Amino acid sequence: MGKYKLGIGLGMGYGQPNERVVKAVAAAGFDACFTGWVEGGDVEGWANGIARAGLIYQSIHAPFGKVDKMWEEGDEGDAVTDMLIACVNDCAKVDVPVMVVHPIIGMDKHDPTDLGIARFARLVEAAEKDGVKLGFENVEGAEYLAKIMQTLGHSSAVGFCWDTGHEMCYNFSADMMALYGDKLVATHFNDNLGMADSNEVTWLDDLHLLPFDGIADWAGIMARIDRHGYAGILTFELTCKNKPNKHTHDAYAAWTVETFAAQAYARAVKVAALGK
Asked: Mind listing the domains of the chain with CATH numbers?
């Protein structure tokens, strides 16, 4: 089917057993998937189940809830660094080629530090050793991604993960591919409605809608993919869940995980067909 293989994140929000979600993704037609990661979790079990379903285990999304601590003084930052290195090691153990990493968490943070770069350098060194690509994702606090790319981007282990929805709500629709597209190693394709308040960056605007349910320019997105010669898997990161006090996902909540996966695949095929 076309030039691109298609993948999806398994965390779609339905709260179903992993086996059912993997089966739904494979039955829908996807070629690949990605998962999150929990320290001490059964990564090999995940990998075996994904392989049995005939899917490619495209990437693991590293935890990001405390990644801001890496930029700050204190033992907690060292602990977070060690945790991310453990995630890299697990990627290598099950032959997952890409680990997606958030450079920061926190809408009010804009001060990348040399200490943070030193810690991320440890992570990059571990990834180089294990043969894993790090896909640093565009999130809030674009200064942190810029600092990582400026200081560590020479490494063959440092790559970019492009989140199309984040670009629209966290990055003020700046063209992140123009900045980092030559280092693209993964995508998190999702639709979005932009910013509710053009002056305020908020996680409430990060919707992860199915393609064509928002205002994303999918033809333009695929043109940017083609412009940078990306030939990897197109992965989609989508959810059935509303953000607090929003009703953007009400229709999805009424679906089964099988229906959601099938709808997501149909949209993914439509997106991929816009490429050259």
From this structure: 6-272 (3.20.20.150)
